[in-house]
Amino acid sequence: MTRAPFESIVALHGARVWRVCRALLDEVDADDAWSETFLAALEAYPRLAADARVEGWLVTIAHRKAIDVLRRRARLVVGDVPDRPTASVARDLDLARALALLPARQREAVVLHHLGGLPFAEVAATLGSSADAARRASSDGVRRLRELLGGVDA
Amino acid sequence: MPEVGLLGGIPEAPIAALHARLVERAAERGLLDVAYRSLDTAVGSLLLAATPAGLVSVTFDGRDPAATLERLSTALSPRVLEAPARLDDAARRLEALIAGRARAFDGPLDLALARGFGRDVVERLREIPYGETRSYAQVAAAAGSPRAVRAVGTACRRNPLPIAIPCHRVVRSDGALGQYAGGVEAKRLLLDIEAAPGG
After folding, report:
1. Using CA atoms, how far apart are residues A58 and A38, in angstroms rounded to an integer?
2. What class does CATH assign to B16-99?
3. Angle at Cα B65 formed by Cα B55 and Cα B29, nearest 5°?
4. How far apart are CA A139 and CA A113, in angstroms?
5. Which CATH architecture has domain A1-86?
6. N or C: which end of chain B has fewer CB within 10 A?
7. Does A88-153 carry CATH code 2.30.33.40?
8. Chain A to chain B, count of Cβ pairs less than 8 Å apart?
9. Which residues of B form the catalytic set?
10. Domain B116-195 has what CATH class?
11. Which among B3, B13, B78 has the least Cβ separation from residue A14?
């Protein structure tokens, strides 16, 4: 059995993994999450099933690593998501902070689909939901992001 | 506005810096099984690869390494990364050999890719003194299989570490140069350098 050298995995998917990390984190933390993603992937790579979809695998690791970093930095206040940000919050929101304000399901669906480029069937497999539910969560998430970012996006 | 537009504001990935750090951390954690780089020389563009044990492969396809990298990934480990700095020392030693400034490769070598009879032949190649040549038949006799002349030719062509292990010093009994993985011109150049006065 032949297996692509890991270098080609980095070359093909490095930018995609960066989008996922950078959407959720500032530059320094995104650097860290990117490294941790590819180190975890490098460690597991020899045991990866031959028919595994590498993008889905990497994007899922990247999302998990980014969330790990967010939790470490205590920026993610679980269970304390305001329904509607106040006007002053909205003005200062950037994408990473807006994403952090989404319910976890919506955030995961948006990040995996729009930034990771995964089709909804794979997003659903990662989230353990149906493709329709993943699609709904993603479109709800995007609508919510638009509201949150409305102040700076207009 | 398309949905993606909302998410389009992400700055581009600083891939070179990210990659350099990945290589560093992978090596620290013992996850860099095969490091590689290309090296342009007078005998062609080489691809060098090393394991933590030493230089493991030299091939003449530095400009188009995909096939060799796939082979190394399958034969050694798929944990393969481009890591030029980790091969600086080996590159300097090979350049010195090619320029006639050194008479032997003194750095660590990993013979993991030389197996069976090929390994026996490679060990005999290392015994041919600088500036001398042997025939395929002589190497076959030295390897204890005097009739295996063709197999010696194959083993020389498959030498995983040409230049560092001097398969270029094996020529045909009739004086013709015989084959070389890097082409006959490269073989002639290496032999000419060894024959040069003061070489």
Report:
1. 8
2. alpha beta
3. 50
4. 10
5. Orthogonal Bundle (1.10)
6. N
7. no
8. 96
9. 167
10. mainly alpha
11. B13
The CA distance from A20 to A24, in Å, is 7
Helices (H), chain B: 15-28, 66-75, 88-98, 116-125, 136-142, 149-157, 184-195
CA B27 to chain centre: 21
A44, B26 in Cβ contact below 8 A? Answer: no
DSSP B86-105: GGHHHHHHHHHHHTTS-SS-
Q: Quote the CA–CA distance of A129 and B167 in Å, as a whole number.
A: 60
ipTM rounded to 2 decimals: 0.90
- Write down the domain spans for chain A: 1-86, 88-153
Q: Which of A12, A30, A40 is nearest to A111 (CA)?
A: A30
> Considering only CB atoms, which residues of chain B are within 8 Å of chain A?
3-4, 6-7, 9-15, 17-19, 21-22, 25-26, 29, 31, 34, 36, 69-70, 72-74, 77-82
Give the residue carrying structure tokens 């638009």: A146
Q: Report domain extents, chain B.
A: 16-99, 116-195
Residue A144: per-residue pLDDT: 92
